[in-house]
Specification:
The complex is a heterotrimer of chains A (157), B (679) and C (291). With 157 residues, chain A is of the alpha+beta class. In chain A, 33% of the residues lie in helices and 15% in strands. Chain A has a 5-stranded mixed sheet with strand order 2-1-5-3-4, with helices on one face. Helix content of chain B is 27%, strand content 25%. In chain B, the strands form 6 sheets. Chain B has a 7-stranded mixed sheet with strand order 3-5-1-12-9-10-11. Chain B has a 6-stranded mixed sheet with strand order 7-15-14-13-8-26. In chain B, strands 18-23-24-25 form a 4-stranded mixed sheet, with helices on both faces. Chain C has 10 helices and 14 strands. The relative contact order of chain C is 0.13. The chains are: A alpha+beta (157), B alpha+beta (679), C alpha+beta (291). Chains in contact: A-B, A-C, B-C. At the A-B interface, helix 1, helix 2, helix 3, helix 4 and helix 5 of A face helix 1 and helix 15 of B. Bound molecules: flavin-adenine dinucleotide and FE2/S2 (inorganic) cluster (2 copies). The site of one FE2/S2 (inorganic) cluster has 11 residues of chain A, from loops. Flavin-adenine dinucleotide sits at the interface of chains C and A.
Chain lengths: 157, 679, 291
């Protein structure tokens, strides 16, 4: 089936099998491998992307469902060499260890901050609960999100 | 680019991300039953095509498996749910999965034996054996505690847990006509190399293993697995690259889980609280096939039962059994948490029996100087550490606060790191830069940080000139792996030794050492360091947990604190990050996690969520306290990685016990056991 | 892990969707959020040959106040329901139930229609709709029919939906001035099966007596359960202890023993949740309900 999707600001036309999961389309066809797969039950959030600005699990959608919509993946978050403030905050606050959950975690955080510029710790804990991290115990991730939030409010990009 | 920057940019290179032209994808047909006769396998690749067994490599390996060895493909009988029966391959994963239907397998289901206690008396699961007991040994020396005024006994059980790294296992094998080039998600590339060679009967030189970025492991990624051999076999057969990625469901059935241990304990003490001795029986569920780790595990647990205390008499029966569950592997702590749980539960029981404070009873039994326990384990004096720990954890203040449905618990332990066989490091100076290779590499611990720091300080060079290279068995002669809280100690020490060796080489050619001479030249040094035998490397830790339990038995962890002696911390923030992550696992191993099978062997916890990996909203904020008493090594390192999974469960369980008045013997815990029967 | 092949269409018009459904009937499935379907298809539990994605039909994506009732389109995401001020204010239990579903990302994907039509007794919205006497609007090639939520849940994973029908809208009667509701659920692990959930929905007379008192239960039996307690109509809240009412709610439940707890534990959970939900609903009603 023919689809046309805007990926990270770029229009992509493709012919895909309806059964192809969006995450596999992103990884295998577009070769954007920052979007990961960590489960087969919609539980882990390693596959999180933004669909028209809203965080969703790309393993639980078919690529055809994204027809005529806008998708942002982790690769679309930074502007060339310049990291998005969430990306720098994760580095600075040690918000990752093995790094596997990280792209999904950052995409969810971006959506979270777009709805709530200054979330409380509790709001962050609830907000990132669709993303599992096995390494950090989450504290450093929460600090990273708080840092990015105060950086933005402090005027830093 | 730094690894962390690559990861936040989505530019990690995990196995799943690596593509080679002409790549095939493998799908594995797995046993639907925990135990069944395998009547027929038609189609695909199966035991008829590849008849080989899995060797004993990886964490805890002892060179030889038990007499019944794990086959690559089951033949005759399947012995655990998820055991590989056949394999198919295709140009992509969707097509490979479609092909799975083309393989015709028929089974005659049999009653499985799933539990270690049941296995002791059940009919043998493997034909030809007369018992499921694989090892049965006594350690320590029998004793009569004539002067004991109190004798307490109790029995405990710790359920199986999946390691559940967010990246599951995966491998990519490319046979180039003469060699196998392998990219794998692993914590021990040399184990995979040696394992592949042994399984397929290949010379060591014909396999090159490269560690891809590895998305966590927690123990399950050091062993050799059937799927790796199958991928290699298919690549050799087709002369095409072959990739296999594990699904989560496969991970939950066919990767090696940890824990699964029963223990009964008898404690002999005086009324003043002094423990005179302990006896125990440990039964480890080794799974369907036992390797060195599974066979040694009950003894390893037994050996640590005295922990940080001066308990002079000990006698333990150490048993491992086979069951119709996946082969046991290590899970963060691997035997250490089990020992701590059994022991600390008994110390709390003793405190209750004598109406003494749990902290007091622990300090009472602490050691004042180097102490060798009845099983040969050596520790340094623990009394001072414990005294500091309870203060620093604010135990006395918190224990005095009014409780109601709240409770506070503490635990003490000694972390015995896995130092056997040491570790390797190779350094190469070229063009003003220093390249470093390790025998065991990071899967989330950021080895590059301590490697740079140690090279920088030993050689007096800026850390920026050091390039830590990805793991590659072609680039370094030998190596061991990353587990058992060992890396900062063994790999750190190897790095220091290799750096010193470079220094000597500069002195030899230039007469004296300067960083400028070093960086201007071409030098190379490689070491595989020796075994370690130093009681100061067994480090102490203590935890405090406070909880509130509601009327339905739901536990909310309010405070979770650590006080760990981490030696000379090579990077404090990273050490604290490791501790927080481990504390999360410690909590979830009590409250959420567990692999639960129905009587017929069906896995009931078949998603990462039902297996209990908790999200942020189910966890508290962690207070990660550390203290730094350097070890006797030049860089002063001690272990830390496993400390939290050892120390948190007993402290948490005690806190719950204080909040509810219900004695807790088994984990994971269901809230139902914390409330009385229906009124 | 991967679904077998199928065909797919995403009409932006309901008639088109109904036509396709008639054409492919047996072999077709309606997809709204896709979360339930894709999980079942990945594990080969179902193998539909044709998916009709109705999420692009605009009229199905609206929440609106229609005077006498609240109208919720079948394609509305549960996250929208959770966030909607109108729902939060006047249909609090509904907002709470939506917020109790799965996790924040899945709430952005799961639709009201999917949650309502699956017929899984564990799902969170049906008990609230039951407790509020909601009606489901089903569209077919021959027009629409209205069915009470009460008559919709026939058994485990079985509903009154007929072949060729699509759920297009849920209507929730306008809650009166002195009404209040709450939904509370217990789960041991997020995204695992729940232990149980209880919705309480009440309205009071001018003088404070119970006018209507109803409960909905999830995880408490073969289907979503509606516990109406007409017995208490006319009595004053101070005269009937919340605990007594909760006990009667438990009578309506027939939970099964499983990994989440024994039947007797679950009954205790339902008892406690019913007490808490009713207490909350009463507070809300007394504070004025509909604003
Ligand atoms: C990880 C996970 C966690 C979950 N947790 C929860 C939870 O906590 N609480 C809860 O309530 N649910 C939970 N669910 C279940 C989820 O709400 C249901 O699966 C729901 O069906 C998903 O909605 P959907 O819009 O994605 O449905 P879809 O996948 O689109 O459809 C589901 C079913 O409903 C039918 N259907 C959908 N729309 C219509 C329509 N308009 N007319 C007729 N039939 C229709 C479909 O044909 C299909 O059979 C969870 C699911 C997952 C995967
Ligand atoms: S891969 Fe786990 S939720 Fe998508
Ligand atoms: S950093 Fe490893 S899973 Fe989150």
């Amino acid at each position: 089936m023919k689809i046309s999707v805007n990926f990270n600001g770029r229009n992509v036309d493709a012919d895909v099998e309806p059964r192809k999961l969006l995450v596999d389309f992103i990884r295998d066809d577009l070769h954007l491998t920052g979007t990961h797969v960590g489960c087969d039950t919609s539980s882990c959030g390693a596959c999180t992307i933004l669909l028209d600005g809203v965080a969703v699990k790309s393993c639980t959608m078919f690529a055809v469902q994204a027809n005529n919509r806008n998708i942002t993946t982790i690769e679309g978050l930074s502007k060339g060499d310049e990291l998005h403030r969430l990306q720098s905050a994760f580095i600075e606050e040690g918000g990752l260890q093995c790094g596997y959950c990280t792209p999904g975690m950052i995409m969810t955080s971006a959506w979270l901050l777009s709805n709530n510029a200054a979330p409380t710790e509790k709001e962050i804990r609830n907000g990132i609960s669709g993303n599992l991290c096995r390494c950090t115990g989450y504290d450093s991730i929460i600090r990273s999100i708080q840092k990015a939030s105060s950086d933005r409010r402090g005027g830093r990009k | 680019m730094e690894a962390t920057e690559r990861f936040v940019r989505g530019q990690g290179r995990y196995v799943g991300d690596i593509e080679l032209p002409g790549m095939l994808h493998l799908a594995i047909i797995r046993s639907k039953y925990a135990r069944a006769r395998l009547l027929r396998v038609e189609g695909g690749i199966s035991g008829r095509d590849l008849s080989a067994v899995i060797p004993d490599v990886g964490e805890g390996a002892r060179g030889e498996s038990w007499k019944i060895k794990q086959p690559v493909f089951a033949t005759g009988q399947v012995n655990y749910l998820g055991q590989p029966v056949a394999a198919v391959y295709a140009d992509n994963r969707y097509l490979a999965e479609d092909l799975m239907d083309s393989v015709d397998v028929s089974y005659e289901p049999m009653q499985p034996v799933l539990d270690e206690q049941e296995a002791m008396t059940a009919e043998p699961i493997h034909p030809g054996l007369n018992s499921n007991v694989a090892t049965d040994q006594f350690i320590g020396k029998d004793f009569e505690a004539k002067d004991a005024e109190v004798v307490l006994d109790d029995a405990f059980k710790i359920g199986r847990i999946a390691t559940d790294p967010i990246e599951t296992r995966g491998i990519l094998v490319n046979y180039d006509g003469s060699r196998l080039n392998v990219w794998v998600s692993t914590q021990a590339m040399f184990s995979i190399r040696n394992g592949l060679c042994a399984t397929l009967g290949l010379p060591i030189t014909s396999v090159r293993v490269m560690q891809a970025d590895t998305g966590g492991a927690f123990g399950s990624k050091s062993a050799m697995y059937p799927e790796y051999a199958i991928a290699a076999f298919v690549s050799m057969k087709t002369h095409r690259p072959v990739k296999w990625l594990e699904s989560r469901k496969e991970h939950l059935t066919a990767s090696r889980p940890g824990r699964g241990v029963s223990g009964s304990m008898k404690l002999f003490a005086k009324r003043d609280g002094t423990v005179i001795g302990l006896k125990g029986e440990i039964i480890v569920n080794g799974g369907a096939y036992l390797d060195g780790l599974a066979r040694f595990s009950p003894m390893f647990i037994g050996m640590q039962l005295t922990g940080p205390y001066a308990i002079r008499n000990g006698y333990v029966r150490a048993i491992s059994v086979v069951t119709n569950t996946p082969p046991l592997g290590p899970y963060r702590g691997a035997g250490r948490p089990e020992a701590a749980f059994f022991r600390e539960r008994m110390m709390d029981l003793l405190a209750d029996e004598l109406k003494l404070d749990p902290a007091e009873i622990r300090i009472k039994n602490a050691t004042d100087q180097v102490f060798t326990n009845p099983f040969g384990m050596r520790i340094i004096g623990s009394r001072q550490f414990m005294t500091e720990a309870f203060d620093s954890l604010e135990y006395y203040r918190l224990a005095r606060e009014p409780n109601g449905r709240r409770g506070v618990g503490i635990s003490c332990f000694v972390l015995v790191p896995a130092l056997m066989e040491g570790e390797s490091c190779k350094l190469k100076v070229d063009n003003g830069r220093i390249k470093a290779w390790l025998g065991g590499n990071s899967h989330g611990q950021a080895h590059e940080v301590f490697v740079r720091k140690l090279i920088g300080s030993t050689l007096d060079v800026p850390t920026g000139v050091v390039d830590v290279q990805p793991g590659d068995t072609d680039m370094i002669t030998s190596g061991v792996g990353v587990w058992g809280s060992r890396s900062a100690i063994v790999a750190g020490y190897a790095t220091v030794l290799a750096s010193q060796m470079l220094k000597e080489k500069v002195v030899k050619t230039k007469g004296l050492y300067t960083p400028e001479y070093l960086l201007a030249g071409n030098y190379e040094a490689e070491v595989l360091n020796e075994k370690f035998d130093d009681p100061s490397l067994n480090s102490f830790g203590a935890n405090l947990v406070t909880v509130e339990v509601d009327e339905l038995g739901e536990v909310t962890v309010e405070e979770c604190r650590s006080y760990y002696d981490v030696g000379n911390a090579l990077n404090r923030e990273m050490v604290k990050g490791q501790i927080a992550g481990g504390m999360a696992q410690g909590i979830s191993s009590v409250l959420y996690e567990g692999l639960i099978f129905a009587k017929d062997g069906t896995l009931l916890t078949d998603s990462i969520a039902s297996a209990g990996v908790p999200p942020a909203r189910e966890l508290p904020h962690f207070v990660t306290g550390i203290t730094e008493h350097p070890s006797s090594l030049p860089h002063g390192a001690k272990g830390v990685g496993e400390a939290p999974t050892i120390g948190v469960p007993p402290a948490l369980v005690r806190a719950i016990e204080k909040a509810t008045g219900v004695r807790i013997r088994n984990i994971p815990l269901h809230p139902e056991v914390l409330i009385g029967p229906e009124k | 892990m991967y679904p077998p092949s199928f065909d797919y269409a995403a009409p932006d018009d309901l008639d088109e969707a109904l036509k396709l459904l008639e054409l492919h009937n047996e072999d077709a499935k309606i997809m709204t959020g896709g979360v339930g379907l894709i999980n079942a298809m990945k594990h080969h539990v179902i193998k539909p040959g044709f998916l009709i994605d109705i999420s692009r039909i605009r009229e199905l994506g609206l929440i609106g106040d229609h005077g006498g009732y609240l109208s919720i389109g079948a394609a509305v995401k549960v996250a929208e329901l959770q966030r909607s001020d109108l729902v939060k204010r006047n249909y609090t239990a509904l907002s709470e139930a939506a917020g109790a579903i799965a996790d924040p990302l899945l709430r952005n994907m799961i639709s009201v229609g999917g949650n309502v039509c699956t017929g899984n007794p564990d799902d969170d919205l049906p008990p609230v709709f039951l407790s509020m006497d909601a009606q489901y609007i089903l569209a077919g090639r021959n027009g629409r029919r209205v069915i009470d939520a009460d008559g919709f849940y026939l058994g485990h994973m079985s509903t009154a939906i007929r072949p060729g029908e699509i759920l297009v809208e849920v209507r929730v009667p306008r809650q009166t001035e002195r009404s209040g509701s709450a939904y509370i659920k217990r789960e041991l692990r997020q995204n695992d099966h729940l232990v149980a959930g209880v919705a309480a929905s009440i309205s009071l007379e001018e003088d404070g007596r119970y006018k209507r008192l109803a409960f909905g239960l999830s995880g408490s039996g073969n289907t979503s359960i509606h516990a109406r307690l007409p017995k208490f109509t006319g009595s004053r809240p101070v005269d009937v202890p919340v605990g007594d009412i909760a006990k009667m709610v438990v009578e309506e439940a027939s939970p099964l023993s499983d990994r989440q707890g024994s039947a007797s534990y679950k009954r205790k959970v339902i008892l406690v949740l019913a007490r808490e939900a009713l207490t909350l609903a009463l507070q809300r009603a007394e504070q004025g309900g509909q604003k």
